[in-house]
C-alpha cells in the first residue's frame, strides 16, 4: 500500500512519547478504507461492524475493511501512529476524543459538510466536542445506564422493584442471603461490579451513582474551565454507599475489584449475582443466555441527595488524520450516521448492536427493536451526563478509578479523606491541561 507522511508536530499527552502525528494508511480508493472498532474479534458486535462496512460498500461502491480489536486498543493505536500507519476511520468511545485529539490523530469535523447533520441529537454532539470547542468526531451511538436485574430472583425473595437506594440495598442483601436461585447454597451476590482500575472501570461504574446523587467529578466554573468535585458531600456519599456494599453488607460478587466488564458479563450470566448496572449493549446477549423471562431493566433510583441522573456515553466515528482518501472518509461518516447506517448498526433485537441508542432523529427505536426494555435506557438518556469536555478526560477517569478502587478494596479506608486527596490530584491534572 502507498503511504503518505504528514511530518507535522503535535501536542503530545503527558503520558505519551510520540513525537509526530501518526498518519493513516493513506489508502487509495481502490484499496478501500481501513476501519478500526473497539470490539472483541469475531464477536457479535464485530460481525455487526462487518455488516455496516458491507452496507456502506453496497451503497457507495467504496471498499471497506473492518479491524476489530479490544484488548489494549488505545496502545495499538499508539503503535500504529508511531509507524505512521493509522487507520482511516476509528469507531471508539466518546471519552477517548481528548486523548486522540491531543496527539494530533483526528481531523476536525465540519458540520456544514455532514449530510443530515441537523438530524443528529444535540446532546450527542456534546460528546464529539473537544476542550477547544471544536468537533473532532461525529456521534454514532449513544447510551445511558440502567439496572439489569434477575426478575425471577426478585420474585423468589418477595421484593418489589427498588425505588430508592435503600430499596436497592435491601434487594441486594436478599439476593446475597436468601438463596434466590433455590440451590440450597449461599453462592449468590446482590451486585456484580466491574471494579478494576483497568481502563478506569471502577470510576466508570461509580459515575452513574455519583450522577444519580447529584455529584460531579468536575464542576464547570465558566469559560471552559473546571474545578474538582469529588470531595463534595454528594459524590462522597455515593462512593461511601458503594463501599458499604463491598465491606459492610458484603453484597458484591467476590473478586469484583479485579474484574473488567468481560469477566463481569460472565459472572452475571452464570447466576453468581443478580443486579448489574450497565449499558444496553448486553441486553440482547443476556436475553439469549439467561432467558427473556428472567431479566428486567429498571432505572437507576435517585440518590438520597440528588437525581435523576446516569452516565451518558457512546461512540463517535473519527476521521483519522493523514488518510489518502478524505472524500471516502467523509462518505463513510455520512453513511454511518444516516438512518440506513444507524439501522444496520442497531442490529434489531439481535445480540451485537454497535449502535445502542440511535443518534439520528429519523430512526424510530420502537420500530427497530420490539423489546420494550430498550425504552428504559432511552428514557434514562434524557438525564444522562457525559464526561466534562476537558482537553483529555482519560487521566481523570484513571486517577479516579485508582482512588475509588482503593476504598472499595480497603474497608478501613476513609472515603472523605480519599476523595479529598483525589481532588488534589484532579487540581494538578486540571493545571497540567490548562483547564483550571
UniProtKB/TrEMBL annotation:
The UniProt record lists the keyword Transport: yes
SUPFAM superfamilies tied to this protein: Periplasmic binding protein-like II (SSF53850)
Keyword annotations: Signal, Transport
Highest taxon, organism lineage: Bacteria
UniProt similarity note: Belongs to the bacterial solute-binding protein 1 family.
GO biological process: maltodextrin transmembrane transport; maltose transport
Protein name, UniProt field: Carbohydrate ABC transporter substrate-binding protein, CUT1 family
An example Gene Ontology CC term for this record: ATP-binding cassette (ABC) transporter complex, substrate-binding subunit-containing
Keyword rRNA processing (UniProt): no
A molecular function GO annotation: maltose binding
Organism: Streptosporangium subroseum
Span of the signal peptide: 1-26
Pfam family, one: SBP_bac_1
Amino acid at each position: 500500500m502507498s503511504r503518505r507522511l504528514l511530518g507535522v508536530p503535535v501536542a503530545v499527552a503527558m503520558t505519551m512519547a510520540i513525537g509526530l502525528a501518526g498518519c493513516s494508511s493513506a489508502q487509495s480508493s481502490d484499496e478501500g478504507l481501513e476501519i478500526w472498532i473497539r470490539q472483541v474479534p469475531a464477536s457479535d458486535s464485530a460481525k455487526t461492524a462487518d455488516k455496516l462496512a458491507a452496507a456502506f460498500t453496497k451503497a457507495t461502491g467504496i471498499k471497506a475493511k473492518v479491524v476489530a480489536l479490544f484488548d489494549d486498543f488505545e496502545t495499538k493505536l499508539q503503535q500504529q501512529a508511531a509507524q505512521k500507519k493509522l487507520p482511516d476511520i476509528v469507531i471508539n468511545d466518546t471519552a477517548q476524543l481528548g486523548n486522540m485529539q491531543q496527539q494530533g490523530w483526528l481531523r476536525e469535523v465540519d458540520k456544514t459538510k455532514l449530510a443530515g447533520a441537523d438530524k443528529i441529537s444535540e446532546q450527542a454532539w456534546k460528546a464529539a466536542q473537544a476542550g477547544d470547542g471544536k468537533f473532532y468526531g461525529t456521534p454514532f451511538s449513544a447510551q445511558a445506564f440502567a439496572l439489569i436485574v434477575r426478575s425471577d430472583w426478585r420474585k423468589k425473595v418477595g421484593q418489589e422493584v427498588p425505588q430508592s437506594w435503600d430499596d436497592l440495598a435491601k434487594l441486594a442483601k436478599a439476593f446475597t442471603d436468601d438463596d434466590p436461585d433455590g440451590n440450597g447454597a449461599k453462592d449468590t451476590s446482590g451486585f456484580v461490579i466491574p471494579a478494576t482500575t483497568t481502563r478506569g472501570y471502577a470510576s466508570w461504574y461509580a459515575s452513574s451513582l455519583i450522577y444519580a446523587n447529584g455529584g460531579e467529578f468536575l464542576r464547570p466554573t465558566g469559560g471552559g474551565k473546571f474545578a474538582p468535585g469529588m470531595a463534595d458531600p454528594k459524590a462522597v456519599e455515593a462512593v461511601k454507599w458503594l463501599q458499604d456494599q463491598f465491606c459492610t453488607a458484603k453484597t458484591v460478587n467476590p473478586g469484583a475489584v479485579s474484574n473488567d466488564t468481560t469477566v463481569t458479563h460472565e459472572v452475571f450470566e452464570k447466576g453468581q449475582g443478580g443486579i448489574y448496572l450497565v449499558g444496553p449493549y448486553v441486553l440482547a446477549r443476556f436475553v439469549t443466555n439467561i432467558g427473556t423471562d428472567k431479566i428486567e431493566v429498571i432505572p437507576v433510583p435517585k440518590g438520597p441527595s440528588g437525581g435523576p441522573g446516569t452516565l451518558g456515553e457512546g461512540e463517535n466515528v473519527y476521521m483519522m488524520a493523514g488518510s489518502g482518501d478524505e472524500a471516502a472518509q467523509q462518505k463513510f461518516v455520512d453513511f454511518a450516521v444516516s438512518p440506513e447506517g444507524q439501522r444496520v448498526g442497531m442490529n434489531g433485537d439481535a445480540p451485537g448492536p454497535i449502535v445502542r441508542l440511535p443518534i439520528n432523529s429519523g430512526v424510530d427505536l420502537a420500530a427497530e427493536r420490539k423489546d420494550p426494555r430498550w425504552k428504559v435506557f432511552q428514557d434514562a438518556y434524557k438525564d444522562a451526563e457525559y464526561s466534562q469536555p476537558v482537553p483529555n478526560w482519560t487521566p481523570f477517569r484513571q486517577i479516579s478509578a485508582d482512588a475509588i478502587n482503593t476504598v472499595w478494596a480497603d474497608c478501613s479506608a476513609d472515603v472523605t479523606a480519599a476523595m479529598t486527596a483525589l481532588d488534589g490530584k484532579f487540581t494538578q491534572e486540571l493545571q497540567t491541561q490548562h483547564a483550571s
